[in-house]
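Posted in: Protein Modeling Q&A

I'm a second-year student putting together a small comparison for a lab meeting, and my supervisor asked me to include a predicted structure for Formyl-CoA transferase/CoA:oxalate CoA-transferase. I've never done this before, so apologies if this is the wrong subforum. The sequence is pasted below exactly as I got it from our records. If anyone can share the structure token output, I'd also love a short note on what stands out.
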Amino acid sequence: MSQDKNNRRDEGSLPKPLAGIKVLDLTRVIAGPYCTMMLADMGADVVKIEEPSRGDELRWVGRYQGRADHDEDYFNASNRSKRSIALNLKDQHEQKIASDLARVADVVVENFSPGVAERLGMGWQVLSEQNPGLIYCSISGFGQSGPYRNRLALDPIIQAVSGVMSVTGHENDPPMQIGAPLGDVIAGMFGAYSIAAAIYGRSITQKGRYIDISMQDSMLAVLGPRMGEALQAGLNPKRHGNENPMRAPANSYQTKGGDYIAIIVQNDNHWENFCKAIGRLDLFELPEFRTMENRALQRKRLNAIVAGEFLLHSTEQWMRRLDENRIPHSLVNTYLQALDDIQVKHRKLIKEVIHPASGSIRLVGAPWKFNQDLDEIFSPPMLGQHTREVLQSWLGRDEPSISSATSQQKENI
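Accepted answer (user: helix_wrangler)
Welcome! Here is the predicted structure, written out as tokens:
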């Protein structure tokens, strides 16, 4: 995948917003790669530097059940539309090549432990001196300063330290992790957001910037109203399972067929329609359920009543009734059901690309749609697949100078 292909467009379409931006990607695992993947989705030419012998750790995490040894499924999820170059940053000659790439890059992103990039000669101070317009983003568990600076952090640790686990699960059960690596992904999103803003700022100031992204900071920043309970009232929010402590009825209710449907009666205007949907207008007449505040206070009793009603009819009947009365609701989908959802199909979110080793693979595409902009994506790279190509296109290296840098990974090119 070359850069001109990455920004290929049909007649009448626009180039992607970050077309022409060069991003040097020193990241691995999830948070950093998710950040640079978002930039690639926006049209940036993202070149990922990987250690020659093994590459990103997620290439070797393990295969999904039934998948072949060459199927790098975990890696593929956060590395679409990038190019891979294999360089050993501990080797003086190859470190110099990486430094030369940074000299012509617009953006460098790294998520090493604090201090490692500096030891490898790829830190902000050194690179910004040779490239004053460089935008440099560091993503780490706890940031580049402070008492936790040197702590190791993976997503479950961030869910724990941020308080997210304390509010996830049922009231009398232990704290629970969210079933997706949101700490990683949210930090990556904030990284991409900050980088895009810095690119715009550079167009005005002509100066680069250093960006310090902390996974802990990022998770705390998105906790919203529940964190407001602690900030303003000094209270620890409790675990409520699938209930909403401020709304009722609001829960996941099992149907006669065994499926679960999530619903939320968001305000008093929804309440009468909900009572119509479940055939219980008598509930609408009860003073103790007339206002949202009263329903929230009586939510245990009300949820029990609603749960009993849902067991009387099929999933299809409930979905039709809730649709007809415009009640916020959804079937609680499995991942496979979510991918097969008719709205997801309409939005063409799931993309099929051809991987050099795995053949046809499916990936979730970018979740935005610009007018007159192609939303195509490209295959995740094989380790070192684009080493020669990148050294030629970014640095203009001739064949002899490239050969010495790539002798260890020729089989991957």
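A couple of things worth pointing out for your meeting: The two ends are 12 Å apart (CA to CA). Residues 1-7, 403-413 have pLDDT under 50 and may be disordered.
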